[in-house]
Hints:
Elements: H1 3-12, H2 22-28, E1 51-55, H3 62-69, E2 77-81, H4 85-90, H5 94-104, E3 110-114, H6 122-131, E4 138-142, H7 148-152, E5 160-164, H8 182-199, H9 203-206, H10 211-230, H11 236-248, H12 256-263, H13 267-279, E6 283-286, E7 302-305, H14 308-314, H15 327-340, E8 349-354, E9 360-367, E10 370-376, H16 388-396, E11 401-405, E12 411-415, E13 418-423, H17 425-433
Parallel strand pairs: 1-4, 1-5, 2-3, 3-4, 10-11, 11-13
Antiparallel strand pairs: 6-7, 8-9, 9-10, 12-13
Helix pairs in contact: 5-6, 8-14, 10-14, 11-12, 11-13, 12-13
Amino acid sequence: xxxxxxxxxRRYNPWLWSKDTWPDSWALRMPEHFVPRLPVNWTGxxxxxxxxxxxxxxxxxxxxxxxxxxxxxxxxxxxxxxEEPLFRTWCRSPAEVLGQIAELAPRPxxxxxxxxxxxxxxxxxxxxxxxxxxxxxVLVTGSSSFHLTAKTRESLAGRAQRLRMLxxxxxxxxxxxxDLPPAVRAYRQAERLQRMLIYGSYPEAWLSDDPSGVxxxxxxxxIVKDASDLFRIDHPEAYRKLLKLMASQIGNLxxxxxxxALCGVSSKTVRRYASILEEAHVVSLLRPWVSGKRAELTGTxxxxxxxxxxxxxxxxxxxxxxxxxxxxxxxxxxxxAEIQKSIRPLLDGCGFWRTRSGAEVDFVVETGGRLLAVEVxxxxxxxxxxxxxxxxxxxxxxxxxFVMLHAGERFERELLGCRIVWIGPAELASLxxx
Length: 434
């Protein structure tokens, strides 16, 4: 092994040379206030001789989650940070990597490759590793903003489990409240929801005393700058303007021609920039849900942000609730983000329902062979009426459950054989988790 490679490995893996450093090294990688995570598709185990690929936006907690699960595995853990140029060169040969790792850790219990999207042939490298049967799990973090999914899907067919890590969900942020009296727990959850509506739930922002500053830095440094550096953003000002336009129109139908005119670029450019933002888990273009029973649906998507805090940072709008005129949009965007944190991308589906006559249901979720409709109402729905759109959807589709999300108490009724429940955000988070 070359001296400079050994020195770099020693810097990242001091416990391989001195095992008693593992507890302190592990602790340094964990935040002071750790929130247990529930990534989508997580089964609770890392299978040996397979890749566990954790994908999500930068700073969403991917590495922290993996390190939290490795506490009792060390010190027989090998860490490789693929942002390091020397490691990127080294990782061109799976056989060489395994051979030289064996010199340091003859029986590793886990290998962790962070930010693997920086490898030119990430999928082929990981395939080579698992085909050589290393005898331990191969753990990988990466950002899908760099097309990591496309790089690895074909190469890792049958060789990987994929977990998606997004910012905290309300369910995750309620784990520490389970032993409180119900009234106190509900009050604390309501407090946390109010903060999520304004500042979102990126870990660093959530745990910071200056969440608006953290979000502004995250938006500029990771989302805007990274995209400019790694993609060809020919019109950076148009890119920024598009981001603000999207932020001002959450929950609305996309109009590419209008956005292109306002940004001063072509519709093709706007479509490309929107795809980059979607790959980066900044926004999502929610497509219409089609059941095959009706052909009345428009094909135009709606735009949502994957985190309320990033949306508000794009507009520099962190005003208190009583000074806002967009609370309805914030509630709807929050509900969308919570749904995304619970559904399995390849197995479940989410869309909105809209007819030519204008009847519309906010979200339709397909999961586990069941159909869930969600209508979002900011504040308390005192009247508890089933509107025209909801009735039309129930008549035409017949969902398993129709949820009216509001800030009030639970209420239940039946209409045309469909169960309809009025529930609060905390119960929605629990329902989605089930």
